[in-house]
Write a structure and sequence with these properties.
Blueprint (H helix, E strand, L loop, with lengths): L1 H21 L2 H28 L8 H12 L4 H15 L4 H25 L8 H31 L1 H10 L2 H23 L7 H28 L2 H6 L4 H33 L6 H17 L6 H6 L6 H13 L3 E3 L5 E3 L8 H6 L8 H5 L8 H20 L4 H5 L2
Antiparallel strand pairs: 1-2
Helix pairs in contact: 1-11, 2-4, 2-5, 2-6, 2-11, 4-11, 5-6, 8-9, 9-11, 12-14
């Protein structure tokens, strides 16, 4: 039991790391760091502007900013925070055109995050138009308000005599201060992993990924501080400006951890579907693609992966790319001028036996056939299941002898 569990865990971790690299998360983290460099001041300005519009929250902005830098940024963030404060104060004096530019910069950062996460979830049709605008606007407008409300609620609870006396007796004040960043990170990341991908994400998976990343950030913060203390190379090279490259390095590491958490959430979802049998046998998924190609061909149209997603067919983007490449090598499909896949051969000329002989997978076993879960199961799939079961039964009957019986003749 234990060795099997260890092998499953090892396989899962390997798959997560491979998916992290295949999705170009390292490059995406660098792109997000670059975007953050230009968007952090606009985001701070927008936050202050929104908070100033709410009378009860006008004085909370500085407190929230100090809490974020103290809790989520290593000790090098103090100088950067003063720079950003100066930039933000200057930005608040801009004209309406300048404010519009800041809003556009903030939207571009959110758009980059949107693309990076949807790429991990293999979503090719990201939010566009009004739906995307409303999501980004909700994040920019409601985010600061909710953050301020949570900060005020926490401060109020901490100020209550009963709570303060209890924490003083139990020595829980330090624990409360340590847990607040973890809880806040968990909440924000859970919302990020569930709301941004244009696909349904199980909340329990998002919560697991968020807790993992929140703890990882705290550990990384300690390690980063030790690195700066024990290796003063940046201070020797950059002097007083060493805080800037160190801050950018921390932002890059933070985005790496956030994207790794997203890959973890996506992998948990896929692992859950595979364990429940929701991911069909490769023969089923490649025939699903051929069926859609046949229908599109009869309509004089080509097929794109988004067509499968709209019908909620259980074919992942990885399987789509693998199967379309194989079908093209077999000479069954090709691309039209619009980049869509179309049939290149009459399917009436190809037998199921000849088709299966060219595939690298064996015929699905009976237990795999029983786990097929496709909405509105078509007649051709029922027919395939019956044929595959007949093949398995005939093969079992033909090979139903021991090796001793065979070799004794």
């Amino acid at each position: 039991m234990v060795p099997q569990l260890w092998l499953s865990l090892k396989s899962f971790v390997t798959a997560v790391i491979k998916r992290f690299l295949d999705n170009r998360c390292i490059e995406n983290a660098a792109a997000l760091t670059y975007t953050t460099l230009f968007a952090v001041v606009p985001l701070m300005t927008v936050t202050y502007s929104i908070l100033s519009a709410v009378p009860s929250l006008q004085d909370v902005g500085d407190s929230i900013q100090n809490f974020i830098f103290e809790s989520f940024v290593p000790s090098t963030g103090e100088m950067v925070q003063s720079y950003l404060n100066d930039f933000s104060k200057q930005a608040r004096k801009l004209t309406s055109i300048g404010i519009a530019f800041l809003l556009v910069t903030s939207f571009l950062m959110l758009r980059t995050i949107d693309k990076a996460l949807n790429n991990i979830w293999q979503v090719t049709h990201v939010r566009r138009g009004m739906s995307g605008f409303l999501l980004y606007w909700a994040i920019l407008s409601l985010g600061p308000v909710l953050l301020s409300a949570g900060f005020l609620a926490t401060s109020y609870l901490a100020s209550l005599k009963l709570v303060s006396d209890t924490t003083a007796i139990l020595g829980g004040e330090q624990w409360l201060l340590r847990l607040m960043p973890v809880c806040l990170s968990t909440l924000v990341l859970t919302l990020l992993y569930t709301a941004v991908p244009n696909r349904k994400v199980p909340v329990r998976h998002a919560l697991v990924g968020a807790v993992f990343v929140a703890i990882l950030v705290e550990l990384a913060k300690v390690g980063f501080t030790l690195f700066i203390t024990l290796s003063p190379t940046y201070h020797l090279i950059y002097g007083a400006f060493a805080a800037v490259p160190l801050f950018l390095l921390w932002v890059y590491l933070s985005w790496l951890m956030v994207l790794f958490g997203a890959v973890l959430v996506r992998s948990l979802d896929l692992y859950g579907k595979q364990s429940r049998g929701e991911r069909p046998h490769p023969l089923i998924s490649i025939l699903l693609i051929l069926k859609q190609l046949q229908e599109k061909f009869e309509q004089g149209q080509g097929l794109h992966y988004t067509d499968l997603q709209k019908r909620d067919l259980p074919v992942s983007l990885d399987d789509w790319e693998c199967h379309t490449s194989r079908l093209m090598e077999m000479g069954l499909i090709s691309k039209n001028d619009g980049g869509e896949w179309i049939l290149a051969k009459d399917l009436r000329q190809i037998s199921l036996f000849a088709f299966c002989e060219q595939l690298p997978w064996p015929m699905p076993q009976d237990e795999q056939l029983q786990n097929i879960l496709i909405t509105d199961e078509p007649n051709w799939l029922s027919d395939l299941v019956q044929r595959a079961q007949a093949v398995n039964s005939a093969r079992l009957e033909a090979l139903d002898c021991s090796l001793d019986q065979l070799l004794s003749k």
